[in-house]
Write a structure and sequence with these properties.
alpha+beta
Length: 201
């Protein structure tokens, strides 16, 4: 009888832990940008090699929300504070080359696209970009960015489809290499998903 009670308690404990994990956001959505192509997607599709674990899970760059007031630490924005994905934070690829860029034109409409492997209730999507003259030789920090988003797409708690596209105007007056930081903020957890995309104006 005592053994049966112990077994029941063990099962109850496992169920309780599972329920807590689910309610704390462990089952939250996952996603990444492929327009403009993000660093994690470049690793996943083999354009950039030797990226480590991110090559198998480009959708998992998840970290604290509230950017730029809070969120990932400076120097760890592109990995969302996830040390497993630290290659994304480096100003160059693991082979020491510049990250490949997408050509864009300032002042024109651009279609941003997210791929979601597990859509989740969403607050909004926000896009930030580096300032003219930003320091390209170190890991990205807030001082490199215009901390006001150039595009915000409200989503009002809805769940996005598996592929989501939306358009917005790119900033004018920029030239050369810049980084766009896309932030997908989850409505019912404390997290957001981050994607750094290298572009050339």
């Amino acid at each position: 009888m005592r053994t049966k009670n112990k077994a029941s308690a063990a099962v109850l404990g496992i169920v309780t832990v599972g329920a807590i994990a689910l309610s704390s956001g462990a089952a939250s959505g996952h996603g990444y940008t492929d327009l403009p192509v993000s660093r994690q997607k470049l690793c996943q599709n083999g354009t950039v090699s030797d990226c480590g674990p991110i090559q198998w899970e480009p959708q998992s760059v998840e970290g604290p929300k509230g950017f730029p007031a809070s969120g990932p630490a400076d120097g760890r924005i592109c990995s969302a504070n996830n040390t497993r994905f630290s290659q994304l934070d480096s100003p160059s690829t693991p082979a020491g080359r510049a990250w490949p860029t997408t050509k864009v034109t300032g002042g024109q409409q651009y279609t941003f696209r997210w791929q979601m492997t597990a859509p989740h209730a969403t607050t909004d999507f926000r896009y930030y970009i580096t300032k003219p003259g930003w320091n390209q030789n170190h890991n990205l920090s807030r001082s490199d960015l215009n901390t006001a988003p150039f595009l915000t797409v409200p989503y009002n708690g809805q769940r996005p489809p598996n592929t989501l596209s939306h358009s917005g105007s790119l900033p004018r007056g920029l030239s050369g290499h810049h980084v766009i930081v896309g932030v997908w903020t989850i409505a019912d957890t404390g997290n957001a998903f981050y994607a750094c995309s290298d572009v050339t104006f």
